[in-house]
Design goal:
The protein has about 110 residues and is mainly alpha-helical. It is about 40% helix and about 5% strand. Strand 1, helix 3 and strand 2 form a beta-alpha-beta unit. The longest helix is centred in the middle third of the chain and has 14 residues.
């Protein structure tokens, strides 16, 4: 998981974008899980990384993960989410989750 954290930090720190998409105001932060569906190239990843930058500045423990990472050859999203939460993690953002086999079942079981 240490490698995932390093990759996450690198990605979060790399994004520099002067404005945020209008969809930001439509995301309900009271929900435990949100999904963003849009066509390629519309800024979904940039939006995620911008929000994670904001949360880090506020002192929250955050993690940005792409489920097509080699980490998931031997690990599951469900277990990552459980460990992240157990260790004080607040915001876990999964990008391109549809590329992970069985993603819907695992996300449904995350509590």
């Amino acid at each position: 998981m240490e490698k995932l954290t390093e990759k996450s930090n690198k990605s979060i720190l790399s994004v520099q974008y002067p404005f945020q998409r209008k969809v930001v105001g439509k995301i309900n932060r009271e929900w435990r899980m949100n999904g963003i569906i849009e066509t390629r190239g519309t800024g979904k990843t940039t939006l995620l990384l911008q929000k994670l930058q904001e949360f880090r500045v506020k002192g929250h423990d955050v993690l940005y993960v792409r489920p097509d990472d080699l980490y998931f050859v031997d690990h599951r999203i469900y277990d990552l989410a459980a460990n992240f939460r157990k260790n004080g993690g607040k915001y876990l953002y999964l990008d391109e989750v549809h590329k992970y086999p069985g993603w819907a079942r695992e996300l449904k079981n995350i509590s």
